[in-house]
Amino acid sequence: MKIRIPKLPVKWIWLTAILIVAAIGGLNRKQWLPQTKSWVQQTVKVFRSGSAHGGGHGEGEADDHEAHAGHDEGTSLELSAQALRNIGLSDSTIQPIKLETFRKSITVPALIVERPGRTRVQVATPMTGVITHVHAVQGEAVEPGTLLFQIRLTHEDLVQAQTEFLRMLGELDVEEREIVRLTEVVKSGAVPGTLLLERQYAKDKLDVQLRAQREALRLHGLSEKQVGQIAKDRRLLRELQIFAPSIDSHGEEELKLTRSLVQNASYTLEKHAGNHSDTKQTVPLILQDLNVHKGQTVSAGETLCILTDFEELFIEGLSFEQDITQLRNASANGWKVDAIFEQPGTENHVIEGLEIAYFANQIDRNSRTLHFYVRLSNELTKDQRADGNRYVEWRYLPGQRLQLRVPIQEWADQIVLPVEAVAREGAEFFVFQQNGTHFDRIPVHVKYRDQYSAVIDNDGSLFPGDVVAMRGAHQMQMALKNKAGGGVDPHAGHNH
């Protein structure tokens, strides 16, 4: 007798098979679920990278990206907005990688110094006299042409020279009138012509003496205009006005007669062509040292004050003997140097692209260093008026200490990151690459590192265009370790 097995509908067979597969899959989910999840994340990352780079990577680069496209929980970190701000990450410090030229450099100590013959201007009186007015105060900013001092002259030699000059001018006037009179008389035949000729010779002698006397007054410190003014007015120079000189030129208007126009304004206006005018402040001089006061008697050549011009200064670098060859090579190649000012509590202030002006021609015997000089353009940080006086503050001042970063070797097409972008753990170096809302830790090979920059080997671990964190790598590495370890074991290192 045959037993008949009833046929099951096809849909029931498929349902049973699906249930069996689901049961087996549920029992073995620890083996296949992580791999499947990682494959899905890698696939999404590849497509996302392809759209972000516009298809710029080839197939080989896409395969290399797939190796670290997805973020593993052990090497990936998600930071809150507060955490990003705490470690200083923002749009300006999360940037794509780009190839650039890296210059290996050395750092030498430096000091801001004055430019000899340019920074300091010594104002002296050319004549003996008594100070009657002091128009400037110490620390005030003045412009070239500003009235500084008025002096009542008591210089005996100058008084005698002016008196002799005026006497000769009077004699010359007499001779000229006599020549005019004799000219008419000689024409009438009343007197011989030799008499007129003698008067003309006498006039020529007076002209020669007057030219000599003019030069004597010029040697006493008077300008040609001042001498001409004495000849015109026939009055002795009794009071002298001393004005602030110009750095680039030595004009005769630095010393003026009292009857001349006085410039009291601390600001000048520059008119430009066109229908409008523009106002421009000239670079001021600072009255650094004021050595006299009203009523004081001063001798010829005595210093009245010292003006300083801080518009342009020098940075004096101190290089050791073993660095001289490298520094000269940098100067010969025209490489720029960077000035680094350390600021407590904030980031260092760096001035890039400075030029080496020149090297000293001898080594300092005491410090065994060679001095070299870099040009530094200064800038005004404060310009105000108080009590009718102008006061300014310059950003850089002589005596400030800093460091100079001088390039000594050049590498082209390198991945260069700030040193804060690289974390180190043992023999490994890591960079944190942005992956959506996460940062993936990427192991890299550091070819060179100094206190400011790190050069990453372009071996495929990172590519130009990859967005990485430019700072905070150490903090993110510590966060990953705490995340993996679940906190510090209080019993670690103890045996019970």
Structure report:
With 496 residues, the protein is an alpha+beta fold. It has 4 domains: 1-70, no CATH class; 71-102 and 410-484, conserved putative lor/sdh protein from methanococcus maripaludis s2 fold, CATH 2.40.420; 106-115 and 309-408, Efflux pump adaptor protein, beta barrel domain (Elongation Factor Tu (Ef-tu), domain 3); 121-267 and 277-306, no CATH class. The chain contains 9 helices and 26 strands. The protein has helices at 10-27, 29-52, 59-66, 81-86, 156-188, 193-219, 224-233, 324-332, 473-485; strands at 76-78, 94-96, 99-113, 120-124, 129-134, 141-142, 147-153, 239-243, 255-257, 285-290, 297-298, 303-308, 312-320, 337-341, 349-354, 356-363, 369-377, 380-386, 389-394, 401-418, 423-425, 428-435, 438-444, 446-449, 453-456, 467-469. Strands 3, 13, 14, 15, 16, 17, 20, 24 and 25 form a 9-stranded antiparallel beta sheet that branches. The chain has a 5-stranded antiparallel beta sheet with strand order 9-8-7-5-11, with no helix packed on it. A 4-stranded antiparallel beta sheet has the order 1-23-22-21, with helices on one face. A hairpin with a 2-residue loop joins strand 22 and strand 23. Helix 5 (156-188) packs antiparallel against helix 6 (193-219). The longest helix is centred in the middle third of the chain and has 33 residues, at 156-188. It is rod-shaped. The chain starts with 9 loop residues before the first helix and ends in an 11-residue tail after the last helix. Mean pLDDT is 79; it is low at 48-69, 257-280 and 488-496.
